[in-house]
Design goal:
Layout (H helix, E strand, L loop, with lengths): L5 E3 L2 E6 L5 H10 L3 E4 L1 H9 L5 E2 H5 L14 H8 L4 H9 L7 E5 L3 H7 L3 H6 L4 H11 L5 E3 L5 H9 L4 E3 H26 L12 E3 L11 E3 L6 E5 L5 H14 L8 E6 L2 E7 L3 H11 L8 E4 L5 H7 L6 E4 L4 H7 L6 E5 L7 E6 L2 E6 L11 E2 L7 H15 L6 E4 L4 E5 L5 H14 L8 E4 L7 H8 L4 E4 L6 H10 L3 E4 L8
Parallel strand pairs: 2-3, 2-5, 3-4, 5-6, 13-14, 14-15, 21-22, 22-23
Antiparallel strand pairs: 1-7, 8-9, 10-15, 11-12, 11-13, 16-17, 18-23, 19-20, 19-21
Length: 508
């Protein structure tokens, strides 16, 4: 086989369900005098733009039949896609009067969206794409000679090929796009299998691959498989990166703990919260959250549980941050925040935490239930006699929500519904507590009367002893250590209140 390195596109088969974003593509194809072969609704759409097309029927000599189930499934189409551009195959194309097809553009029937929208089996089955998925596989298999665009998520890349490269592609580009294509077919087939199997591995829409600028670091490649449009509306800013997505996930998980509470602001840095506060007004919650750690907040991810208003927008406009997530924007507030072009401004909707989590590990994958436990204080066990005021109980609940979303080992210190100190990712619980105390002191917080939460039990009384010396009065943790009583006794004798929840919140 010859080593073809650069090919120029001369013909394109375009068959897409969703026509959004297609206009600029077909305009570029027309500009480059590339023949456009198309079907059905796509044909009508392109003709409406005044751009000439070649109907599939003119190549196959056969009309679309069976309510559109069979349109492109014909040797005249698949021969043109699968033919290796070498003498033997080219002679066969000539013998049977078949035309080469150099580019295939497909956007599949929305099977997963349909499953989410209806329980009607007939409607769902009709959205299983046959022709489109076959076109993707054929073009991807023959990547040495054919360019495959397997979804509208790849339109930006195709536009670059047409607009900047004049329709010329390298072998490496075609192989990369083939890789993306097989990712699309894999996810699509998995969704169909899970439907027929009567269950779903995911409770979210898993969409085609979207290339990211890079992975966790610039030398790492990355793709996102999903449909962010189901969750977010983007109002401004650059494309999301790998690290943005990781931090956004952490932000959305934590804000769900406060979604029905008074105005609450959360600041995330490297998936951990460095500021959390609840107040009666949103701009007050923002200022309180920022005061938790104004240094770490720089370049962070911001999320709140109430609509963004002008007063709050003016306050947060003073800080450099990467992403802002809100339920909705007041128009005037959005106009203020859009002045700085690189800020990513998102309003969220329909966010439901995933019930299953997956992680690559060793030569396999771990699947486990997500930590969606919602604490009911009625199930907490009070193990000391000192009274707890209603306000102190609110701080204990607040601290327990925060500690659940910090990396282990972790301690959260809370006062007046503000995360005044946190230690996370430490190899000992004592280190986590010392880090939390240092944070609080660094930013001027007084810990007298503060609440402390731990993600796991205290194996020794050392943590409550250290906490007591800086004024902490209220403690909540899972319990379960064989030496729980040592910590309980220390609290009892030092006027500290302690609750056991029975639920551990390790986060690795």
């Amino acid at each position: 086989m010859s080593e073809l390195r650069h090919n120029k596109i001369k013909s394109a088969l375009v068959s897409v369900f969703d026509k959004s974003g297609l206009q600029q593509i077909v305009e570029e194809l027309h500009r480059l005098d590339i023949e456009i072969i198309t079907t059905g609704g796509t044909e009508s759409f392109i003709k409406s733009l005044g751009i000439p097309v070649t109907p599939v029927e003119s190549l196959t000599g056969f009309p679309s039949i069976l309510d559109g189930r069979v349109k492109t499934l014909h040797p005249a189409i698949f021969g043109g896609i699968l033919a290796i551009r070498e003498k033997e195959h080219l002679l066969q194309l000539g013998e049977y009067n078949l035309a080469e097809i150099d580019l295939v553009v497909v956007d599949l029937y929305p099977f997963q969206d349909t499953v989410s929208a209806t329980d009607d089996e007939y409607t769902i089955i009709e959205k299983i794409d046959i022709g489109g998925i076959s076109l993707i596989r054929a073009a991807a298999k023959n990547y040495r000679d054919v360019v495959i665009i397997p979804s509208k998520n790849q339109y930006n890349r195709l536009f670059e090929i047409l607009n900047q490269q004049e329709g010329v592609t390298s072998l490496d580009e075609r192989k990369y796009l083939a890789t993306q294509a097989f990712g699309v077919t894999s996810i699509y087939d998995t969704a169909i299998h899970e439907y027929f199997n009567g269950k779903s591995a995911f409770n979210v829409h898993i969409g085609p691959a979207t290339p990211l600028r890079y992975g966790e670091n610039p030398h790492q490649k990355a793709n996102y498989y999903g449909d962010l449009d189901q969750i977010f509306t983007r109002h401004a800013g650059k494309e999301l990166s790998y690290n943005n997505l990781m931090d956004i996930e952490a932000a959305m998980q934590l804000i769900q703990e406060f979604i029905n509470d008074d105005p609450t602001f959360v600041i995330i840095k490297h998936t951990n919260s460095c500021g959390v506060a609840t107040r009666s007004k949103l701009f007050e919650a923002w200022n309180a959250a920022l005061s938790c750690d104004s240094i770490s907040a720089f370049g962070g991810i911001l999320v709140c549980n109430k609509p963004m208003d002008v007063a709050t927008a003016l306050e947060i406009d003073k800080l450099f941050y990467e992403v802002l997530l809100v339920p909705e924007f007041e128009e005037a507030a959005l106009n203020i925040l859009k002045q700085k072009k690189n800020r990513i401004l998102l309003s969220y909707k329909n966010f439901t935490p995933q019930t299953k989590m997956f992680r690559n590990i060793l030569n396999g994958v771990i699947e486990h239930d997500a930590d969606l436990h919602q604490h009911d204080t009625e199930t907490w066990k009070k193990v000391t006699s000192p009274d707890v005021s209603p306000e102190a109980m609110k701080d204990l609940i607040f601290a327990n929500k925060c500690v659940k979303h910090l990396k282990s080992n972790t301690i959260a210190l809370v006062k007046n519904k503000t995360l005044v100190g946190m230690g996370c990712g430490q190899t000992s619980r004592v280190d986590a507590l010392k880090q939390a105390i240092l944070k609080a002191k660094t930013f001027g917080f007084e810990l007298a009367g503060a609440a402390m939460a731990s993600d796991a039990f205290f194996p020794f009384p050392d943590c409550v002893e250290i906490a007591s010396k800086v004024g902490v009065k209220y403690v909540v943790h899972p319990g379960g250590s064989i030496k729980d009583q040592d910590s309980i006794n220390y609290c009892e004798h030092n006027d500290m209140s302690m609750y056991l929840t029975g639920i551990r919140h390790f986060k690795h």
